[in-house]
Design brief:
- This protein is α/β, with parallel strands linked by helices and 352 residues long.
- The protein has a single domain, classed as Divalent-metal-dependent TIM barrel enzymes (TIM Barrel, Alpha-Beta Barrel), CATH 3.20.20.150.
- It has helices spanning 24-33, 51-56, 58-69, 81-85, 94-97, 109-129, 157-179, 196-205, 218-224, 228-235, 281-290, 308-322, 341-347; strands at residues 5-10, 38-42, 74-80, 134-137, 182-186, 212-216, 239-244, 246-249, 269-272, 296-299.
- The chain has an eight-stranded parallel beta barrel with strand order 1-2-3-4-5-6-7-10, surrounded by five helices. The chain has a two-stranded antiparallel ribbon with strand order 8-9.
- It starts with a strand and ends in a 5-residue tail after the last helix.
- The model has no long low-confidence stretch (mean pLDDT 96).
Length: 352
């Protein structure tokens, strides 16, 4: 067993143009004041971080580490969620996702994918310079528009999508392997990797690559009505990152899992600030501790009702309360009789 590290904070939802959210030193001071001990850094946000520079300069990485250390913080992981999304984009989503890319590759899906792969390669080297063991990202999606089998899917369509996804990701996974860092895919609707079954299909397509792992976020599983506690029992060996995010699912006579095209505030399933939803975090933290999860518990704040700064403040305390300091000895050690092997065999009725 192992005690989780935390609380950490994913900075993506908080970065902005106004202080204290417009620079790494300022947002670090703010996060530390709330009780966070680590930050997950979005690598696309130039207000906070320069990915290309981090990939090439140990001095720069040491400076970033020093800025955070001044406030008692560490880097939990780097994130390339937006770049990972661009590893595979179905044409239906080209216009919506194009803004994630560098200006020079927009409107060219081949160049955009190559740029995304290069960004991931940079992230592998940068993560290594920080001494990190896990990296957070999305898989991208080619098959997602065909999620519901109507019209009937042509035979081989999904297999072809996952073969292509694996072809694009395999060199990136190899780069992370060379850097000694796990790629942790956030299993998320809108990605081709959105549950255990799709993750297994991808694993088969990349030959069970040891660096293909999971960012566990139970909110996405609750909204799919997946057993998020049993998921830990099944996939704990591959869970290397953890977003602590709450959600609620309240179906009614008008809508269920698909949400009726409603906005987030009106959906049957919606994200909530920590403690305001339905997720059993006591069970989650217990299972992760039981299975020796090696990483951080990182708050990803998303809520359709509560102010983000309130969610961050409450979230730090929430995570701290749920982290289990694992026992170093069994609770009943006081009753240890200290018997030897001969006595054990006698207790079992074994002679000789």
């Amino acid at each position: 067993m192992r005690t989780l590290q935390g609380p950490g904070l994913f900075l993506a939802q908080f970065a902005g143009d106004l202080a204290p959210f417009n620079s790494l030193p300022a947002i670090a001071a703010w996060a530390a004041s709330l009780g966070f001990r680590g930050v997950q850094i979005p690598t696309w946000d130039k207000r906070l971080f320069d990915l290309a520079r981090a990939a090439e300069s140990q001095t720069y990485c040491d400076e970033i580490r020093g800025v955070l250390a001044e406030h008692g913080l560490a880097v939990t992981e780097l994130s390339t969620h937006l770049q990972g999304q661009l590893m595979a984009v179905h044409p239906a989503y080209n216009a919506l996702f194009d803004g994630f890319a560098a200006t020079g590759v927009r409107g060219d899906d081949v160049a955009r994918c190559a740029w995304a792969a290069e960004q991931l390669q940079l992230a592998a080297r940068a993560s290594s310079r920080f001494g990190l063991k896990a990296h957070a990202t999305f898989s991208g999606a080619l098959a997602w528009p065909y999620l519901y089998p109507w019209p009937q899917r042509p035979p081989g369509l999904v297999d072809e999508a996952f073969a292509e996804l694996a072809r694009r990701w395999r060199p990136v996974l190899d780069a992370f392997d060379a850097a000694g860092v796990d790629v942790c895919y956030e299993l998320h609707p809108g990605e081709d990797l959105f549950d255990g079954a799709t993750f297994e299909r991808f694993l088969d397509a990349v030959g069970q690559h040891p660096r293909a792992n999971i960012l566990y976020d139970p909110s996405h599983f609750l909204l799919q009505q997946l057993d998020y506690l049993q998921f830990i029992d099944i996939y704990h060996d591959r869970i290397r990152a953890f977003h602590v995010k709450d959600a609620e699912f309240r179906p009614n006579g008008r809508q269920g899992v698909y949400g009726g095209f409603a906005d987030w505030v009106d959906r049957a399933g919606r994200f909530r600030s920590l403690g305001d939803g339905q997720i059993d975090f006591g069970g989650i933290f217990s299972k992760l501790a039981r299975h020796g999860y090696p990483g951080w518990a990182v708050l990803e704040w998303e809520c359709c009702l509560k102010h983000p700064e309130d969610g961050a403040r409450e979230g730090a305390a929430f995570i701290q309360r749920h982290i289990i300091r694992v026992a170093e000895r069994a609770f009943d050690d006081f009753a240890d009789a200290g018997v030897d092997r001969t006595t054990l065999r006698g207790l079992l009725g074994i002679c000789g």
